[in-house]
Specification:
Blueprint (H helix, E strand, L loop, with lengths): L1 H16 L3 H13 L3 H13 L5 H24 L6 E18 L6 E18 L2 E15 L12 E12 L3 E12 L5 E15 L2 E12 L4 E11 L4 E16 L5 E16 L4 E15 L10 E13 L4 E15 L3 H4 L4 E14 L1
Antiparallel strand pairs: 1-2, 1-14, 2-3, 3-4, 4-5, 5-6, 6-7, 7-8, 8-9, 9-10, 10-11, 11-12, 12-13, 13-14
Length: 359
């Protein structure tokens, strides 16, 4: 009887000293955040072995790590020399049906747009950094252009560009320039830069700051600053939010350049199935207040512009296909179309389908 009491006491003590699933999960996330992946994996395994409310979520994390390790092992087997150089080519070919509606008209304008882009990049892996130099050629061809006079587009446009990107554990930098040609214009250059820095990580979530700038030397200019949040997984839910301020400069009429400043929000949500089918929805919203008015006509003018899109894609290998719907909306407030020379609101809808590849 005494021996039985000792055994029961030992079992009770062991159970009392055992960590809960929540405690093990928390320690695993902290080890992951510190970069100690082997210890984090051991703690994830221990946590999933303990019953609790996070079993499915922890198992998903373990599966993600195992998938990455499997891909790394396959890569190491295919390339024992670990050549840091690689070459990739990717691109898209698609067609969009266009539908344009604006205030003051009863009939909509319809047309079509065919587009293609081809990219070639040389990449170099250096410890925790990835460098890429990319060349890009793209083109757009507008079909039934005469049926959409409000858009005032060229029959064709093409662009040749070069870019450089740097990707690290906590930093993304993308910079590039291109020369654009079109039917009615000789050529005009543009330039862009995007930088994002991750400041903190909690499991699959990353928090940081991002900034960007764009300059077309014969057209619009923009700059933005965002706080960012990301949720990354190979399969399942992925989410991104960019929230901050944006500056725009565009030509509202043939006489003046207007400058806008205001809040900007860019959220997106996607889900990737293990069948390599992905669905995505995203928004890009901007509410601008005109600053530095060139004339009293524009005093107090405000602009709301936004785009929203939904896409479904399937890419089982090097080649894939996609279909999507997108709308671009613009609305001017505290003014009339007669004073600014533009419709008070307009809505452009696109139904797009195409193929893409990555080799």
């Amino acid at each position: 009887m005494k021996r039985l009491l000792i055994i029961v006491s030992l079992l009770w003590a062991a159970n009392a000293l055992a960590e809960s699933q929540e405690e093990l999960y928390y320690r695993a996330l902290k080890a992951e955040e510190a970069g100690d992946i082997p210890h984090a994996l051991d703690l994830f395994d221990s946590a999933v072995a303990v019953s609790g409310p996070y079993t499915a979520e922890i198992q998903e994390i373990i599966d993600d790590y195992q998938s990455v390790l499997k891909e790394y092992d396959e890569y190491s087997a295919d390339d024992s020399s670990q050549n840091p150089w690689s070459f990739h080519t990717y691109g898209t070919i698609n067609y969009s049906g266009l539908h344009y509606k604006k205030k003051g008209t009863s009939d909509a304008e319809t047309g079509g747009e065919a587009a293609a882009s081809i990219n070639a990049s040389v990449e170099y892996e250096s410890q925790n950094w990835s460098h890429a130099l990319e060349l890009n050629v793209s083109g757009d061809w507008f079909i039934d252009k005469d049926d959409m006079p409000s858009l005032d587009t060229n029959s064709w446009e093409t662009s040749v560009g070069i870019g450089y990107s740097l990707i690290g554990n906590a930093l993304i930098l993308d910079i590039g320039a291109s020369i654009n040609f079109s039917e009615n214009e000789e050529w005009n250059p543009d330039f862009y830069i995007w930088a994002e820095r991750y400041l903190a990580q909690n499991g699959k979530q990353k928090f940081g700051l991002a900034t960007s700038a764009y300059k077309n030397f014969d057209g619009p200019t923009s700059a933005s600053f965002y706080g960012t949040w990301h949720r990354f997984t190979k399969y399942g839910w992925n989410s991104t939010i960019y929230a901050g301020a944006r500056y725009e400069s565009d030509s509202l009429s043939s006489l003046y350049i207007l400058k806008w400043l205001g809040p900007s929000l860019r959220p997106s949500v996607s889900y990737k199935f293990k069948t390599d089918i992905s669905v995505e929805t995203k928004l890009n919203l901007f509410y601008g207040f005109v600053i530095d008015e060139p004339a009293t006509t524009y005093d107090g003018v405000q602009k709301f512009s936004g785009s929203w899109a939904f896409n479904i894609s399937w890419k089982p290998g090097m080649f894939g296909t996609f279909i999507g719907f997108e709308q671009l909306y613009r609305h001017y407030l505290n003014t009339s179309e007669y004073s600014i020379g533009y419709p008070k609101w307009s809505l452009l809808s696109k139904l797009k389908a195409g193929i893409r590849w990555n080799i």
